[in-house]
Design a protein that fits this description.
Order of helices and strands: HHEHEHEEEHEHEEEEEHEEHEHHEH
CATH superfamily of the largest domain: Type I PLP-dependent aspartate aminotransferase-like (Major domain)
Bound molecules: pyridoxal-5'-phosphate
Helix content: 25-40%
Mean pLDDT: 97
Low-confidence stretches: none
Number of helices: 11
Distance between the termini: 22 Å
Shape: globular
Length: 370
């Protein structure tokens, strides 16, 4: 039986060659190639007012940004619960409190900005927004909040690599953007991340990535350290892979869009009782990182997953809500998050997914419900 994986990275010979060349060169740690990757990434995002900093992963990007905002014990940071745990763990690492926000509805799994506004207090020091599957949230309302409350906004754009809305790429709109290049992302370096920030914050964030070392003087063989720092560098090997990945990201996003439209058409035709979040947004210039569906309430998700697996199809689910994890337990009434997280499934979506595989996925789902 042919297996349909949940994801396959779009990576091949040119990435292998680029990595090989770096290994042969002997220059392995962060250097010229990492700087080139940072510049090309920024150029592709078409933002002139921002800077880019390559880091070891997005968790370190989140930590670096939150730390630079001097988030500390007693502070609150608002973040989604229907997201990856790193959005909350990085807040906790700084001893602050994650305040979880509900989603809009089963049609829109992004943060509900009106719920977010209700959660702003005088302890709120930052807001993390996560663009679920790469779809924008209510950006106008968010801009209004930013002006009204003067709280910095961090865009977790891990799902939204090169999602375009209102003449900007997501991750470049507010104060900070953070990206992941983990293996299942729309572009990958295996592990890796990027921070997008304003010019004013650049030097501080960049030096934190490198033990907060400043004033490096090669003649005197000396440097200074005035702050706490870390090693969150991205090496040359991964950066060389990232450069190659950047070449194909827009075309790969277009292929993902076609797959999303195909799923939409066929699921609506044959399985109209399956809810497709973001249905009305499919077709725009977004990243289509995930294809989420919601099973009917009476359907056993476990049986569904087992049936698909028996037929060679692997699916996933994004995410177990953070506020339900033991370490983060919160009694916040996140009713919509609680409801959808029991019914969510992410179907395979990646450029290497073939039409006949998509047809098989739809056929197997149809058989399950028959
Ligand atoms: C939404 C979201 N935020 C943060 C992260 C953390 O990224 P990384 O794995 O690069 O640390 C991920 C990674 O999967 C993610 O999907």
């Amino acid at each position: 039986m042919n297996i349909i994986n949940y994801f396959k990275p779009s990576i091949g010979n040119k990435e292998a060659r680029a990595a090989y060349n770096v290994v042969k060169s002997g220059n392995l740690s962060s250097g010229k190639i990492t700087r080139k990757f940072e510049n090309l990434f920024l150029k592709k995002l078409r933002t002139k007012s921002k800077k880019s900093i390559a880091v070891s992963n997005c968790t370190s990007a989140l930590y670096t940004v939150l730390n630079s905002l001097n988030i500390k014990e007693g502070d609150e940071v608002i973040c989604p619960s229907l997201s990856f745990v790193a959005d909350a763990s990085t807040i906790k690492m700084l001893k602050a409190k994650p305040v979880f926000c509900d989603i809009v509805s089963e049609d829109n799994l992004n943060q509900d900005i009106s719920d977010l506004e209700k959660k702003i207090t005088n302890k709120t020091k930052a807001i993390i927004i996560m663009y679920y599957a790469g779809y924008p949230c209510n950006l106008d309302y968010l801009s209004h909040l930013r002006k009204k409350y003067k709280i910095p906004i961090i865009e977790d754009a891990c799902h939204a690599l090169f999602s375009y809305e209102k003449k900007s790429y997501l991750g470049t709109i507010f104060d900070y953007g953070v990206f992941s290049f983990y293996a299942n992302k729309n572009m990958t370096t295996g592990e890796g991340g990027m921070i997008i920030c304003n010019k004013k914050k650049f030097d501080f964030l960049k030096s934190f990535r490198e033990h907060s070392i400043v004033d490096r003087n090669y003649n005197k063989l000396n440097y200074k350290v005035n702050e706490l720092g870390f090693n969150f560098r991205l090496d040359e090997i991964r950066s060389s892979i990232g450069i190659q990945q950047l070449d194909n990201i827009l075309i790969n996003n277009q292929i993902r869009k076609k797959i999303a439209l195909y799923y939409l058409k066929n699921l609506k035709k044959y399985l109209p009782f399956i809810k497709i979040p973001f249905e009305n947004m499919i077709g725009k210039k977004y990243s289509y990182h995930l294809f989420p569906i919601l099973l009917p309430r009476k359907t056993s998700r476990q049986k569904f997953v087992r049936y698909l697996k028996k037929n060679g199809i692997f699916v996933s689910m994004h995410y177990p809500p953070i506020h339900k994890f033991n370490f983060y337990l919160s009694k916040a009434p996140l009713n919509k998050t609680n409801d959808v997280s029991k019914r969510l499934i992410s179907l395979p979506i990646y450029p290497k997914l073939k039409k006949k595989e998509i047809n098989k996925i739809i056929e197997v789902i149809k058989n399950f419900f028959e």
